Structure formats: C-alpha cells, structure tokens
Amino acid sequence: GQNIDQPTEMTATEGAIVQINCTYQTSGFNGLFWYQQHAGEAPTFLSYNVLDGLEEKGRFSSFLSRSKGYSYLLLKELQMKDSASYLCAVLNSNYQLIWGAGTKLIIKP
Amino acid sequence: DAMVIQNPRYQVTQFGKPVTLSCSQTLNHNVMYWYQQKSSQAPKLLFHYYDKDFNNEADTPDNFQSRRPNTSFCFLDIRSPGLGDAAMYLCATSRGDRDTDTQYFGPGTRLTVL
Fold first, then answer.
1. Cα angle vertex B61, ends B57, B66, to 5°?
2. Residue A4 at interface with chain B, using a CB cutoff of 8 Å
3. CB count, 10 Å around CB of A96?
4. How far is the C-alpha of A101 from the C-alpha of A89, rounded, in Å?
5. How far apart are CA A26 and CA A104, in angstroms?
6. Cβ–Cβ below 8 Å for B100 and A102
7. Nearest residue on chain A to B43, judged by CA atoms?
8. Which residues of B fall within a CB distance of 8 Å from A102?
9. Is there a contact between B90 and A91 if contact means CB atoms under 8 Å apart?
10. How far apart are CA A63 and CA A48, in angstroms?
11. What is the pLDDT of residues B45-75, one digit of tens each?
C-alpha cells in the first residue's frame, strides 16, 4: 500500500523553530508538497520538492531525501498565526497525490 | 485575482435530500478535483476531470456524481446524503502539467446533514 506518516500534533513556542517530519512509501515519486491548513479552511500551497536538498522560502524551508523517503518542513521565528495543520502529500508515479493526515501545530505564547 | 471559488461556503441538508455543491475557477486550469475531508483526516479524492475526461476513484460511492459543463465550472451532486457524508468538500484545480502540478484549493463547502 501507499502511506504518508507524520506526527499527529506538535506544540512549540512563539519565536522558536519547529521541524515537522514526513515519511512516505508510495508507488513511485514525482515530488512532495507541503500545504498549510487553518482550522475550517482549505489547504494552501507552501512548497514543492522533487530533488534532494533544502528549499528555503522566507521563514519556511522544506527538505527532501528521496533515498530515505523522508521530508521535513522547518518553520522559523514562529508566530501565533502559524498555528495550523501542515499536510504532506506525495505525487506518485501515476501522478496521483497521496495525502498525509496532517500535523496539527499549536503555538504557545 | 485568479482564484477557485466554491458556493455555498456552508450547506445544510436533510438526510436523503439531494444537494449540489459548485466550484468555479478563473485560473484556466485543465484539471479540477473534488475532495472530501473529515475532521483531522487527509483529504480524500472523490474524482477529477482532466479537461472533459472524467476520472472516478475506485472507492467513491455511487451516491456522489460530478459534472463539468465547461472549463470554468464543476459540480458535485450528492444524490441521497447520509449522516456519514457530513464533511468539508474541497474543490481544487491544477494546470495538468506532468511536472510540478501544484493543486490550488477553493475555500471549501462545509456540509451538514440533519
């Protein structure tokens, strides 16, 4: 089967750094996406990785290791508005997007 | 601004009473998707259209139907909603490129079944 694993919930402090991990087992790989989803809202696109390494976009960075089937999303200088769920999704060899259940990130003052 | 629009944002229906959710896009994307998402779960793909080509996921119940009359609009029809169909319904679009085919989501319609 195909699956995406990410922690259910994480807690961090405002101003700190947090790393959200994602491991995947899919039939083939054509890229990995991270989406942010605030409660009751739709997912919004954060990042896309298809090559190994780190992609940086402001306070958010995403890392990929294809050989390990592993990615992480790094959030720096956390703000209260970063409280949301973060979903990892992998595009498999059939160009189907396989979704993780999301990691709920709670930011405390 | 180019966007994906869903109407209504909140829909209440009665058990067994048909309901239609709508999605429109100004992105001129080839592909449109309908997802069902329940609380704290991953979005579940129901179907997608590549242009006019309809693709049904194998485990999508027959109770769910879809129409795409033109490039801009797509509808989700739930013929006989059950209590288990209460969820957020998300419409998404993508260009349909094989590489970097990012999906962009509308705001969703939250369906309540009484």
1. 70
2. yes
3. 18
4. 9
5. 23
6. no
7. A99
8. 40, 42
9. no
10. 10
11. 999 999 888 888 888 999 999 999 999 999 9
